[in-house]
Amino acid sequence: MSSDRYRTVVRRYRVRHQQIVVLVLALSAALILGVGFILGRQAAFSGISIDPQRYREQGAALQAARAEEDNLGRQLGVLVARHEVDRAALELVRQELAGQKEQIAGLEEGIRFYRSLMAPGEIAQGFSLREIELVAREEPRRYGFRIVAQQEARKHRPLQGELYAEVSGQQAGAPRSYPLAELSADLESTILPLRFRYFQSIEGDLVLPEGFEPRAVSVVATLSAPSKAEAREQYPWRVQEKFTHAGK
Predict the structure, then answer these.
(1) Which of 19, 75, 137, 212 could share a disulfide with 171, CB 3.0–4.6 Å?
(2) How far apart are CA 159 and CA 197, in angstroms?
């Protein structure tokens, strides 16, 4: 019995001894690995002449610089957006000023026109024609036109008469003329009636036939009352950007 008890104690002692040895070896290995990592890192830093503390400071500075870059990028985006808004607002103001200037110029032009009718000597005495106005439309070979008959007098009496206009040019190498009424659906007849005290505007759109090249527009206006008179003009085919405000 005493011999068996002794063997049991010896076995238990050996097992605990082995566990302690394994634990010590594991701790030693971990310590060696940790010391090796630290020494290796220091050796790496020293090999490239970088102080670890300075390296950490530079890393923190890099993060701060990146954060500042992001902040500046956001501020730049805001400034760009504001600039676009300001530029759009400035363009609107410029367009509005240009429109107002154009409107003022048109009003001044209209005032001059009406003044010329009322003030003797501003235009030809008595009954006359203003130069025809031609404006290109978006549709090819389509043009807007305006013919104005007017009178300058001290006493503006109602006038009655009629007007005829035709467009002359070349077609297929030969001279050709078209009455204005044949080219325009806005005119009801070839002979247009006149009835006005100060002026009368005849306007609409015309479409040129294919192959026809216009050269001039001839206008003949005759008065029958209160007295007979005639105004005859031939105008070159000249297209302008827009109609004037006079005679509207």
Answers:
(1) 212
(2) 6
How many Cα neighbours within 13 Å face the side chain of 135? 14
Determine if the pTM surpasses 0.90: no
Interatomic CA distance for residues 128 and 116, integer angstroms: 12
Segments in the chain below pLDDT 50: 1-3, 5-6, 8-10, 13, 48-49, 122-123
Rounded to 10°, the helix 52-118/2-47 angle is: 50
Q: What tokens were used for 133?
A: 């106005």
